[in-house]
């Protein structure tokens, strides 16, 4: 065993052992003392300890005097053989192929003999800090290439049960790729539905003599990677032309190839080895997901990146390569390099239709049913597609629909996991982990009898754990839970913050109550409320284009008549969430450059890619009411930004991201035309006067706003001056809200009709609408009561 272990020693460790033996021979010692070996370990040039010793001004002579003095020779409480065996165990745990000086140092510091303790104490070295540094270096083993497996054929190993150390055919590519045509890998991959045309196009390109490298382009979530996995499945099942039979598709992990390549030339050497292996095997096709990352990958000063290394190979057709990336990334990284772009043949993958998405979900649902042990109803599949298409706008089908059914199944699985046996299972797992930890410590300390006893106990607990798991699995298997429409509705409700009741019972029932609710809160503007509710209802019933916002309103009228309050109450009743009300004060956008506050600063300017107060809010809350308050104060260029929102239902921010407004309600308020309202103050003026007033204001508006902006608004609504009865009702409501606060102070309050009429008259004189009512109540009711309390 020891001889086999010696084959695993690194060059440095072998040198240390030989030097210690030579030193012992010189001193005519039969056994090599531990301190001789420690001295050699501590003297290795370029090690972590050598740097620390330099900081402490410890030279070779000082170390020699301390470790080789005669009184320390008998100190053998941890013998060299035991130390090396423990280091060997540590290397095995870390999956290192060689045992090095670093492993021995780690064992010495973790289980220090007396001489090590004395040394650290005398020279003021923190052993725990040193141990942490060693641990970090050993686990990040790229800095110790001699400790990790070399990518070539190696001799037999001492660890036959550990596949990382047994070796295979020595192929480097197997360490950096996944074989998609492997039966075990394919068992975890969903089938590809309704993509035969794209797969056939990919087969056609792969069968070419030259430029046989397809690249799949599509937005995130449309199934680019799944398309390649689908081709791999067809190859495995033999459903491809003869030229592709027995081929294998290896998914290359570019990140792993780059990882650990610290020094110049490491990356090129590694990638060239991979390329040579692929060239030598004509049955290998490589797949690189996010292929745009090859541009610049692994390059440093004076070296080539992955793209330049692959160009000549791809041009000659020596290897077949499939790539996948988004259209934007392809344009940004691949297209600008004409030499690289001509090597690839693009295949555009579009988002599936609703019907196709349903077929895809029906095709893959068995895999999710088996994994989660549930059953999906047909209605659940249909709702997952249609609800995700309607309510989740920042993702694409089929990805967003698959997310819904997966999350609904996970939720159902969590609910069914509250089994009495689960607590017993958890306790058994904790017990097993503790036993394994103690067993490792016992082996390291050479307490083999205790380790054997713990091993027997480990077997018993493992059997118990297995029986518990089998029992739970059987009970769950016999009672699969069904995922129905309600489960999908609950997930979508949680995702986008729409009340579950609104999704379940439909929005029509809510909208029927909206008219009466708003009229109770917005006094004296019944005609405006009716127009607003009618427009929203028309949109919800599908009579309006689905590419536009749900509704857009321009509310005109003097200050204090309820325009902003209407927007607030509308958001509250429709979305049931205060955060669904997004207010933008347009007085902040009086200058042209202020538009960056809405969509973000353009590239090259301060604030680029920083959060902005508008598009980020709408992206997070796609179901919301957006209020542009005092629209007339905004710069015309800022108004132009709203044109795209009103017409197409989306806007692009400074980074080019599309922000969806199709599920928002746009409300704009303005005091525009106040002078016309002042001229037409009549209590209960007729409809003819109302129409004339609207025509006058619209004509005046055309001088300030472009016609295309006015024409894109669903409803332009005039708010009346508040009549005397309306003011009286508003004051009554406000006083009613104030009375509980007054009574809480111990005072009583009463208001007769005469006093109420006086308050109304005062409010009308101020011509400030409902805002004037607040001031009147404060001045004539709240202030006297406060003064009375202070007396």
Report on the architecture of this protein:
By secondary structure, this protein is an alpha/beta fold. The protein folds into 5 domains: 2-143, Orthogonal Bundle (Double Clp-N motif), CATH 1.10.1780.10; 172-350, Rossmann fold, CATH 3.40.50.300; 355-483, Helicase, Ruva Protein, domain 3 (Orthogonal Bundle); 501-718, Rossmann fold (3-Layer(aba) Sandwich); 724-790. The chain is 56% helix and 8% strand. It is built from 37 helices and 15 strands. Strands 1-3-4-5-2-6 form a 6-stranded mixed sheet. It has a 5-stranded parallel sheet with strand order 10-11-14-9-15. The chain has a two-stranded parallel sheet with strand order 7-8. Strand 12 and strand 13 form a beta hairpin. Helix 12 crosses helix 13, helix 15 (266-280) packs parallel to helix 16 (306-316) and helix 36 (753-766) crosses helix 37. The longest helix has 31 residues, at 448-478. It is extended and about 120 Å long. Residues 141-170 and 682-687 have low confidence and may be disordered.
Tag the structure with descriptive keywords:
Rossmann fold; chaperone; nucleotide-binding; ATP-binding; ATPase_AAA_core; single chain; alpha/beta; Helicase, Ruva Protein, domain 3; 791 residues; Double Clp-N motif; five-stranded parallel β-sheet
Q: What would CATH call the architecture of the largest domain?
A: 3-Layer(aba) Sandwich
Mean pLDDT: 82
Classify the secondary structure makeup into a structural class.
alpha/beta
Choose one word for the global shape: extended
What is the count of β-strands? 15
Assembly type? single chain
Largest sheet: 6 strands, mixed
Strand content: 5-15%
Provide the low-confidence segments as ranges: 141-170, 682-687
Report the helical percentage. 55-70%
Arrangement of strands in the largest sheet: 1-3-4-5-2-6
Instruction: Assign the CATH class of the largest domain.
Output: Alpha Beta
Radius of gyration from the alpha-carbon trace, in angstroms: 38 Å
Domain count: 5
The CATH homologous superfamily of the largest domain is called: P-loop containing nucleotide triphosphate hydrolases
End-to-end C-alpha gap = 98 Å
User: How many helical elements?
Assistant: 37
CATH topology title of the largest domain? Rossmann fold
